[in-house]
Each structure stands twice: as structure tokens, then as C-alpha cells.
């Protein structure tokens, strides 16, 4: 449970950094451009950290990821070429 909370806080920090960069982008002066680069650098670093954490949690079995996006139907016979009906032109 606490791992999910940490991941959500990390995602919110990424969003905060993104909108902070957008704010400094709108100002347009030289001081704001330095702050813009700093905010976007934080966003990239936090995104890489989030990605590494998710991969490690999945590797160690703490976080279960879905195998596929679409539901997969499994038949007891398995998949064979006989069960697939192809058009006669094939």
C-alpha cells in the first residue's frame, strides 16, 4: 500500500514540475528561462526515477503488471490451425 502512495506522490511531483516549467515558459525573461531548464531537468530526472522504480518493483515481484492490454481467451485445446477458419481464397 505504501509503495503505491510513494508512486502517486512521485507522479504528482512530475506533474508539478511540468506545470512549473509551463509557468516559467510563459514569462519569457532570462531568469525564467533558467528556472524553466531547472524545472524540466527535475521532471526528466523524476520520470527516469519513476521508471526505474516500477521496473525494479516488478522484477522483485512487489508490483504485478498486466501481461496484455486486451483480454486473452484461452481454449482447453490450445490454438491450432484447424480452429481458425480462413477464407477459401487463401
From TrEMBL:
Keywords: Membrane, Transmembrane, Transmembrane helix. It comes from Kangiella koreensis (strain DSM 16069 / JCM 12317 / KCTC 12182 / SW-125). The lineage of its organism: Bacteria, Pseudomonadati, Pseudomonadota, Gammaproteobacteria, Kangiellales. InterPro entries: DUF2909 (IPR021313). The chain crosses the membrane at residues 6-28, 40-60. This is Twin transmembrane helix small protein. It comes from the Bacteria.
Amino acid at each position: 500500500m505504501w509503495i503505491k502512495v510513494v508512486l502517486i506522490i512521485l507522479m504528482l511531483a512530475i506533474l508539478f514540475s511540468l506545470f512549473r516549467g509551463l509557468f516559467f515558459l510563459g514569462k519569457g525573461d532570462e531568469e525564467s528561462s533558467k528556472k524553466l531548464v531547472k524545472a524540466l531537468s527535475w521532471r526528466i530526472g523524476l520520470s527516469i526515477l519513476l521508471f526505474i522504480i516500477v521496473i525494479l518493483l516488478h522484477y522483485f515481484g512487489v508490483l504485478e503488471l498486466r501481461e496484455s492490454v486486451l483480454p486473452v481467451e484461452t481454449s482447453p485445446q490450445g490454438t491450432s490451425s484447424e480452429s481458425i477458419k480462413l477464407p477459401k481464397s487463401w
